[in-house]
Structure formats: C-alpha cells, structure tokens
Amino acid sequence: MVFVDRLLATLVHLRHGVTHDVLACWFGGDRSTITRAIGEVRPLLAERGCTLSSGVRLRTLAEVIDHLGAGGKTGIIDGTEIRVRRPAAGRKDRDRFISGKSKQNAVKNMVVTDGDGRVLFCSPTRPGSCADITHARQLGLVKLLADGPAVEILADAGYQGLGAQTGGRVITPPHRKFKKNAPDWYEEMHERQRKAHSSRRIRVEHGIAHMKNWRALARHLGRREHTSDIVQAVAGLLSHQQTADLTSAPQR
C-alpha cells in the first residue's frame, strides 16, 4: 500500500471504528497488510502533538504550561477513561485496570484544554485504578506549575490538594465547611460558587466529548499497549480540525 492509502485506512479506522477485515476489502488487500499499515501510521499521528496554528504544535505538558503562561490564558484539566478488555485470568496486575469511578476495566488519560475547549494536550494512558490527582503528579504538573509561569488551571474535585502544592494555581471547587446542619445562607453561597466554577470548566468536558465521538475511543477491544497512541493521535487530529475551523470561520 502507498502511504496515502495507509494514512486513509488509519484515519477511517480511528474515526469510524471500521475493522481491519472490512478495510482490507475496501482497499483490496490482506488483513495483515492493513494491520501493519495502521501499526506504522498510528504512532506517527500520535507524535504530531496538538496543533495551535500552522506549523506550531504542542507535544509535552511543559510546552502547554509555557504556552498558557505566555498568553495569560486559563487552562482546564480533567481525566477521562476508555473501557478496555479485562486482562486474562491469573495475571498479577489484573485488578490495576478496574476503575474506582466506573467500576469497569479502563485506562485513564489527562486532557488539557484552553478556556475555549481547544485540546492542547492528552497524556499517555494509565491503568484505571490510578487516581486523577496521582496521574497529574506523575506527569509532573505540580513541579511545572511551581517552577513555571503564573498560570491558572481549573480542575474538578478529583484534583483537590493540588492548589496547596502549586501556590493556588490549580483551582478546584470550594470545600464544604459544614457537613451537617449548614445554615441556609451558606448552602446558597456554596451552591453559587460551585456552579460558577463548573460553568468555567465545562469547556474541557466539551473537548473530551468531541474526542469520544471518534469510535476508536468509545471502547477499545484491541491490545491495551496501543491505547496511548490511539488517544494521542485522536487528540492531535481533533486539535488540527479545531484550528482549521477557527481559521476558516468568518471574521465579524
């Protein structure tokens, strides 16, 4: 297969979840040829990073933090899960993929968007049992924010604790000061603050939803070793599409 056909087969597989057997019929080749082609092109797409503009891409979390700091922009982070097959019986790490949130076998990624919901970064996958805050620490987010530019990062309650470690740069929903018998004025104030925070960070949910529209991320039935390349390839392709849409949008 020529490179254009290999690329097209990979894009169709990621976007629509078409099986290798069907792609082999479409392109008039063998299933093993399609499998090899997708295995070669998918890592190339994952390495492209997320597109900011023509020829400008972000590939690491450090580059994202520098970009947000240079432009004085707000970043939004959130974790997302992709269901995967259960590891075979007898494997010692079988329980590592059970998510505490969904109670299903999954892998987890951390997604970073800007205030408009444009995808800027998607991390490699971790087993579903890894907590969101632990994943963020393992990616070096605390050190990058503590040593880097002043950046405001919005996050949900799963990241509570990072604010104190980053000098208040990670903003999470307010803590409840009253667990029982809270006065009415406090309930009203807390609910207002919670909704205000949620309305600011909802853009990251929209970005993740656009990623999940790609059928390859609905549920992964293949090898779990490929999920990092798949999700990062989709994030890069989606960011390129978002950039193209902004560029082609009519100026008002």
TrEMBL record:
Pfam families hit by this protein: DDE_Tnp_4, HTH_Tnp_4
Domain DDE Tnp4: 77-237
Cofactor (UniProt): a divalent metal cation
Keyword annotations: Metal-binding
MF GO annotations: metal ion binding
InterPro entries xrefs: HARBI1_dom (IPR027806), Transposase_HTH_dom (IPR027805)
Transposase Helix-turn-helix domain span: 5-50
Domain of life (superkingdom): Bacteria
Name of this protein: Transposase
Species this protein is from: Streptomyces lasalocidi
